[in-house]
Structure to design on (280 residues):
């Protein structure tokens, strides 16, 4: 049977010495809610649905047990209450950084990451009568970018004549929207256009053989990639359907991207990203 493993900024949150452990993993699977609301119109039954709602930040609370033992060896100490206080402080320090990266993994699979920060509410501590001394510590966290992501990046190749639709097999296991993409158009290609549902991104211009155009859909940067150096003009990028240049949505059926271009013949592009998930 598989077992959980969890770390925060490189610190093991399930150490074998047992000085702390996460009591319940279910909070890791909370996931984000929907941002926005439908429109209520007087004298009209029901509401008018607002389409394309976005997701909120993910809020989660990690409940820990902490014991007053030596964190390095798990051995009993003379003053377990003082050691408990030190261990609680040690655990709080792990989550005190401006950005904390949670890494969750199973014994038999890869790892997924979630970047979090402390929520506005302070952590809460409840001491318990026991020997050695023990306490529960609840750490409230917020994930501004609400989805878990694979540590590994995947690349989907798109090759064919204008109008070619390619099934996104490299991202088939993803469950949440992916917006932080690297879209690469490989020359020679003219006026390349990607379409995914109502999301489109297009470069208005010709990319000669030997050149590449790399679009970062989150930072709105265009670069020359690994091909012949040149300076792309951002004014030649046109997109529609959302705030980012492009997005992959696993809820779309069929889950595919269409590559169109002018100039005839076959052309090539690729999409690189980490798969995103609602759960770790």
């Amino acid at each position: 049977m598989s077992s959980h493993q969890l770390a925060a900024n490189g610190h093991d949150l399930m150490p074998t010495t047992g000085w702390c452990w996460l009591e319940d993993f279910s909070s890791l699977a909370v996931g984000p809610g929907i941002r926005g609301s439908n429109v209520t119109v007087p004298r009209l039954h029901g509401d008018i649905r607002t389409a394309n709602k976005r997701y909120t930040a993910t809020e989660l609370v990690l409940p820990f047990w902490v014991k007053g033992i030596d964190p390095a060896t798990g051995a009993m100490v003379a003053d377990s209450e003082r050691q408990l206080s030190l261990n609680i402080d040690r655990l709080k320090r792990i989550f005190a950084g401006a950005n904390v990266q949670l890494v969750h993994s199973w014994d038999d699979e890869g790892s997924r990451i979630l970047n979090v920060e402390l929520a506005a509410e302070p952590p809460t501590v409840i001491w318990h009568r026991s020997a050695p001394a023990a306490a529960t510590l609840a750490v409230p966290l917020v994930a501004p970018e609400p989805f878990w992501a694979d540590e590994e990046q995947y690349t989907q190749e798109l090759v064919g004549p204008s109008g070619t639709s390619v099934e996104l097999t490299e991202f088939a296991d993803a469950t949440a929207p992916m917006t932080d993409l690297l879209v690469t158009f490989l020359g020679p290609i003219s006026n390349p256009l990607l379409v995914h549902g109502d999301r489109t991104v297009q470069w208005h211009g010709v990319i000669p053989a030997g050149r590449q155009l790399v679009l970062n859909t989150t930072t709105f940067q265009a670069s020359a990639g690994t091909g012949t150096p040149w300076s792309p003009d951002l004014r030649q990028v046109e997109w529609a359907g959302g705030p980012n240049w492009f997005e992959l949505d696993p809820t779309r059926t069929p889950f595919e991207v269409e590559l169109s271009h002018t100039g005839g013949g076959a052309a090539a592009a690729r999409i690189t990203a980490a798969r995103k998930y609602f759960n770790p």
The two ends are 17 Å apart (CA to CA).
